[in-house]
Amino acid sequence: MEENPFREDDLSVRSRPESCTLVIFGATGDLTHRKLIPALYNLAADGDLPPGLKVVGFARREKTDEEYRAGLEELNREVSRQGHNDDLWGQFSQSIVYHESNFNDAEGYYSLKERLDEMEEAGASPNRLFYVASAPEFFDDILLHLKSSGLNENEKGWCRAVVEKPFGTDLKTARHLNQVVAETFEEKDTYRIDHYLGKETAQNIMVLRFANVLFELLWNNRCIDHVQITCAEPLGMEGGRGGYYDKAGALRDMVQNHLLQLLSLIAMEPPADLTADGIRDEKVKVLKCLRRLQGVEDVSENIVRAQYTSGTVNGKEVVGYRREDRVNPGSMTESYVALKIMIDNWRWEGVPFYMRMGKRLPKKGTEISVHFKEAPNVLFNALDGAEAMPGNVLVIRIQPNEGISLGMRSKRPGPAAMLQPVKMDFRYQTSFGKSSPEAYERLLLDAMAGDATLFARKDEVETAWKYIDEIEDAWHKSEDPPKMAEFPAGSWGPKEADELLEKDGRKWRRL
Ligand code: BG6
Description:
By secondary structure, the protein is an alpha/beta fold. It has 17 helices and 17 strands. The strands form 3 sheets. It has a 9-stranded mixed β-sheet, sandwiched between helices. Helix 11 (about 250-265) packs across helix 12, helix 11 packs across helix 16 (about 460-475) and helix 12 packs parallel to helix 16 (about 460-475). The site of 6-O-phosphono-beta-D-glucopyranose (BG6) has 6 residues, from helix 11.
């Protein structure tokens, strides 16, 4: 095919990660210990880390470099997907130093600047990647201090910011944060993390859809009956999480970001090209077409919120949500939510997208299932059990056991005409012989490469909040709010969530 001069060159935007100094704000937190440092270590083990990369951990607690590294090592031993190798860790950890300061102490930023200048004079890369991973109440302070200390500009190299979630708690706060970010960094240098976009299978959704002729031709309301997205977690409020979670709830914690991102990838139109903006333009269009829920009645009809009560998960007895550590005993925060979402555009008119997510469900699993319409009811429907048998369902398993399977009906071998459900199954582990990289590995490399494709853009975040805010308003600001359902921990959610589908003549797929 001839090249189109109006089109961005897709391959040229996939540039190589460049060496830099990664400054992590919130360096003593769980995310740094469990995700960021192990991701860098895994990249080092695979030989994918740009040579000369340095890490500066910025946090309040008093620590020496050695103490800091020892704490990181302990967690890396526990979580690294590559296993922990003492020699490799010894080498890798030499690139990590600790910088002690309060987030709102200007002095700490000036001394950081001096430190970076010195490191650069001694040969470190002049590129600076600031990763804002502190508690969210410090995001503003950190960004503003980066600006006032002049850390956000460096004549000799680039300066970029990665901002962790939660990106605001509603539209107003997200807009404010976007403004603070924009005062310090240009949009092209801003990377809003949604780690679900870094998961291999989530990245594969676009390839599945747009690199295969088979699916895209059927990917519309003529052939698809409905779509389900489930994100289940057995975890509750371990490790003091209740403090954050009880202020957020399932809708803000997971739906505003991860689940709406997955929905956008499933529902978007083919992008004009594979540039970050080409793709994000199409994702935003989906979010703009979500049917708005207006008022309490609409919200009650289409959304179920619930909390777990005491129960048994993985053989262990657990307390109910309201009795969890740091959770208000009278809490009206949902630990579970199920939604029916309609997308008002040509492709999806009349096709419901059902989503559910919750804590203390029986097992860990995120999957998207695309349920195709029934074949015409003429030839095989008279056969025993054919009617109740699942038809064509395409399942995209985001995690665990990443893969894609297609459910079909087949003839059972033998003289009798009998149908049986069968599956074509693709598993990453079997096809590629290795486990997928962790989402943060890919995202860190992309930020070092200046590729924002897998990060949320300003308007994406704000459009998603607009949708969420209307639901939150119905729950928390109305006089007669929709009820809070309950279900025992370790079960698959409240009966009201089953009813949400039953009233449409459908059922949740079992994971
Ligand atoms: C985070 C949420 O963004 O994602 C957590 O704040 C949730 O509540 C986590 O547990 C789930 O991520 P993953 O990658 O384990 O599915």
